[in-house]
Design brief:
The chain is an all-beta fold. It has no helices and 13 strands. The protein is 0% helix and 48% strand. The strands form two sheets. Strands 1, 2, 4, 7, 8, 9, 11, 12 and 13 form a nine-stranded mixed β-sheet that branches. It has a four-stranded antiparallel β-sheet with strand order 3-10-5-6, with no helix packed on it. Strand 8 and strand 9 form a beta hairpin.
């Protein structure tokens, strides 16, 4: 039986305006599986933080693609994080979505006094870091500014092949539309795949707002 996995990475946690609804990141059929993990550091603290992501791959697996995805709030400076002993940098070169206006916690005053209300999603290709023998990873995030001008959420995505597993199709899209709308619509062309089980996964952060911090998912 063919299985279909759709991972909706819903970044940023803030509201965006006048941008494309979604940005495709990964869309591939293969025999194997996927691993995803997410972490959001405390938004009200400037302290360094970290998390242990526990996972493993079946013996004989091959890594197809691995990404570390980060949501950026405001005009944040480059950030160097660590995955185990490997350094991963987020900066202008890793931005993959259009910059968009952020209504919550995106304001940041530049050195020239102007205000930047920008947000975006960044992606680092870490395929060479994640290996079939990898047994979990520790994500270490250094000190950042509080609330804005920071990278607020991190998601790991790994697609791996294994000859003894079932065929699947995995699709990853990055959100870049306004969270101020009552409904966010994503289009995944499932009709191009053979019939089978379908799973949806969402990685969404928070803005410490009682009105907008909630998620309800419906699929037609």
């Amino acid at each position: 039986m063919r299985k279909i996995t759709v991972i909706g990475i819903c970044f940023l946690l803030a509201m965006a305006m006048n941008v494309n609804a979604q940005v495709p990141l990964f869309d591939q059929s293969f025999t194997g599986g996927v691993v995803t993990r997410s972490f959001s550091p405390e938004v009200s603290s400037a302290d360094s933080s970290g998390v242990q992501w526990d996972f493993s791959f079946p013996e004989g697996s091959t890594i197809i693609k691995a990404y570390l995805i980060a949501g950026r709030q405001g005009d944040a400076p480059p950030l160097d994080i660590k995955l185990n002993a490997f350094r991963v940098r987020f900066d202008d070169l890793t931005q993959v979505t259009p910059s968009f206006t952020s209504e919550f916690y995106g304001d940041s005053v530049r050195l020239d006094g102007s205000v930047a209300k920008v947000a975006a999603v960044h992606v680092a290709d870490i395929t060479t870091i994640v290996r079939p023998e990898t047994d979990g990873m520790y994500l270490s995030i250094p000190s950042q500014s509080i609330v804005s001008r920071r990278y607020s959420d991190f998601t790991l995505f790994v697609a791996y092949a294994h000859p003894d597993l079932e065929p699947i199709h995995s699709t990853v899209v990055l959100n870049s539309q306004s969270f101020s709308q009552p409904t966010l619509d994503y289009t995944i062309p499932l009709n191009k795949y053979a019939c089978g089980d379908v799973a949806f996964g969402f990685s969404a952060g928070y803005v410490c707002n009682n009105t907008f911090d909630k998620v309800s998912v419906h699929a037609n």
